[in-house]
Design a protein that fits this description.
disordered N terminus, Undecaprenyl pyrophosphate synthetase, 247 residues, 7 helices, six-stranded parallel beta sheet
Length: 247
């Protein structure tokens, strides 16, 4: 994610495109198509990641402005470690620059930030910045923003199952006491509402191992545009479609 040259902004409040009480409690977005966007324009793949940052900034700010409760962005999957090393290194540096440049704006606008996934797999410098961001925004009461990094939904479920098994072994839980709510406490998204709306860009029809438990009953929205072209107008349209279908 690229560093932004803009000054720290206090976001203005905006009326949501649908009534507050009908907003999805939690929106998840699979941000797909950065490389494809660049290749379609004869540009290097990294340019797509750079431009995609502006979509990240716009979607986060708009979500905060309209009073969305929770937003989870799929930034880097466990499968992404198979990409060329040069691209991975670039993405990690991009993430570092983003965290350095955007943290103050997130803090100022009451965003509560948390990374989810196998954070221990990330470079130490990234881990430190993520920890700083979590600490700096922990008391915020606005948009709850989660960014999935080195994340895989199946891995998350396995980790949660192991944690529950360990509780049983220690005698803290009985097998017949285990239910959905018990398992949810051990997910990376513990404390967040279920995903009501799951959006994927670039026209793909796959979940790609993203929030498998949390999005079990979510409405799935596919947008044909690549992530660098996905801005607030596209999110607004997805929210309106979500509301129309529910009604």
């Amino acid at each position: 994610m690229a560093a932004s040259s803009s000054k720290v902004r206090r976001w203005e409040s905006l009326p949501p495109p649908i009534p507050d009480e009908r907003l999805p409690r939690h929106v998840g977005i699979i941000m797909d198509g950065n490389g494809r966007w660049a290749q379609q324009r004869g540009l290097p793949r990294i340019r797509g990641h750079q431009v995609g940052v502006e979509s990240v900034r716009d979607i986060i700010s708009y979500s905060g402005q309209i009073g969305l409760n929770a937003l989870t962005l799929y930034a880097f999957s466990t499968e992404n470690w198979k990409r060329p090393r040069t691209e991975i290194n670039f993405l990690m540096k991009l993430l570092e620059r983003y965290l350095r440049s955007e943290l103050e704006e997130l803090r100022l606008n009451r965003v509560q930030f948390r990374p989810i996934g196998r954070i221990e797999d990330l470079p130490a410098s990234v881990q430190r910045l993520l920890s700083d961001a979590v600490e700096a925004t922990a008391r915020n009461d606005g948009l709850r923003l989660s960014v999935a990094l080195s994340y895989g939904g199946q891995d998350e479920l396995v980790e949660a199952a192991r944690a529950v098994c360990q509780q049983v072994e220690r005698g803290e839980t009985q097998p017949d006491e285990i239910d959905c709510a018990h398992l949810e406490k051990h997910l990376h998204t513990a404390g967040l509402p279920p995903v009501d709306l799951l959006i994927r860009t670039a026209g793909e029809q796959r979940l790609s191992n993203f929030l498998l438990w949390q999005a079990a009953t979510a409405r799935y929205c596919v947008d044909d545009c690549c992530w660098p072209d996905f801005r607030r107008d596209r999110l607004c349209a997805a929210l309106e479609d979500y509301d129309a279908e529910r009604r």
